[in-house]
Amino acid sequence: LLDIDHFKSINDQEPDGHIAGDRVLVELVELLGEVAGSNAVIGRWGGEEFIIFIPHTDKPGLQKIAVSAGEAVREQLAKRAKLVRGQVTVSLGARVSKSGEKSIEMISAVDKLLYQAKNTGRNKLVMEHAVVPFG
Predict the structure, then answer these.
(1) Is the pLDDT of residue 135 over 90?
(2) DSSP states of 4-17
(3) Which of 48, 101, 105, 128 is catalytic?
(4) Which of 18, 24, 57, 132 is most deeply buried (CB count within 10 A of its CB)?
């Protein structure tokens, strides 16, 4: 799960307001697709949250993709979305599914990891047994 940090401030502070926020959402999905690869399934989970499924990926592979995504967003998203601000950041919670685990259990666990990232300063990835700040 991925959440755009302080998304409301984009809508409130950019000269073209919600239109800028819409550009951020569109560009984010394109950027995530480039980083996560063609096997990834990306969906809007709600508001400024997105869910990404990457089949057949182990923990090191997942961490590499998630870190690449967070860093790519920090480095490229504001420019790609033509924002006045210099940077947009995201918080991520990620983990590999466990054998026999129901989807709702997996999503609930990842949601807790995402909120840990948000509640401990944002702009980072939280996985089980790993916290990786971006930049």
Answers:
(1) no
(2) ETTHHHHHHHSTTT
(3) 48
(4) 24
